[in-house]
Amino acid sequence: MTDINQEKVLSLIVSQLKEYGFYTAAKTIADAIGISPEPNNKLAEICALNKFNIQEEQEPVQEEVEVDNGEFDFSNPSVSYQPNYSAIFTTMHKEPVRACAFSQDGAYVATGSHDTSLKVLDAHLIARKTRGDGDEKKVLKTLYDHTGPVNEVVFHPNGAVLASCAGTLKVTLDDYKIKFFDLQKQNSKRGFRYLSDAYPVRSISFHPSGEFIISGTDHHAVRLFDIQTMKVFIPSNAADHHQGAITKVRYASNGQTFASCSIDGSIKIYDTVSGRCVNTISKAHDGASVIGIEFTKSNSYLLSTGLDGKGKLWDMGSGKVVCTYSGAFQKFDCAPMTFSYNEEYIIGSDSSNHTICVWNSRNGTHG
Fold it and tell me: Does this UniProt record's set of keywords contain Nucleus (predicted)?
């Protein structure tokens, strides 16, 4: 192999490692050979195109037999590896950050703060910071249009719009709104559309089609908005409502269902078409408030976070808990537990010592 070919191959390997999220391994190779390619999927594409052209002698392989080993059937299983806990970038708000979200393609990160501002950052430039690539501008936009603390930020599925919600009863400023920001307008720092509510808006989630957005507020009923008409729909049956403020709402990735959780300690699952509640998990955390929910990519499981200091993984088919993540103290205003990008790990915070905790998603062991 010539030096030129070797450099091309190594460049493809580094780019593919970055694309898969293995930044530490990519950095080791990149530093050793002095290259810094951008993340891309070219190596995987080349392998896919040539997989039938590779002729190698192989030993006969026995027919694969599926064995139930007690592990969860996540949609994207991968080989377990030790996560990298190194901080690679820090951006500053004037007050604590209350919300953070990636765009669907992973290219951008948005943050929302108690100081009422939002920031949009370039994720690729943040990843490159570990190589010491100068002082490139990581913060692409700073947005100002809320007058109260930002509770959640979410990207529209098209990636061109950022939505945020705000409001808290502890602040007298009246900003119980969902606001939409056009990220394609270079100099725009204000929202181009907003939806008002009579209560602080705690959580929002886009339907995968981008045509609808649901919200959870300090009221006990979920709101569903049609983005085009701005009309709001609220479940008419009181039995479909919570008994207290809603802390989090989430659509499943297939758009067929959505979920909500509340300080009343329950989790509710709704049918998207009818808007009716199809299942209620009462006292999901032994009566403690539930502050977070998140579907797996396969929509087969739901992760919940409670003020009992535990995370729980629920089987959506049976409604039973299949794994519990304990050992961290949770406060109402802390970040709820979430999945790592490949769902191998559960990531959460411990409010008692201000640390980030990581659990194995399949067996609940705490690292």
Answer: yes
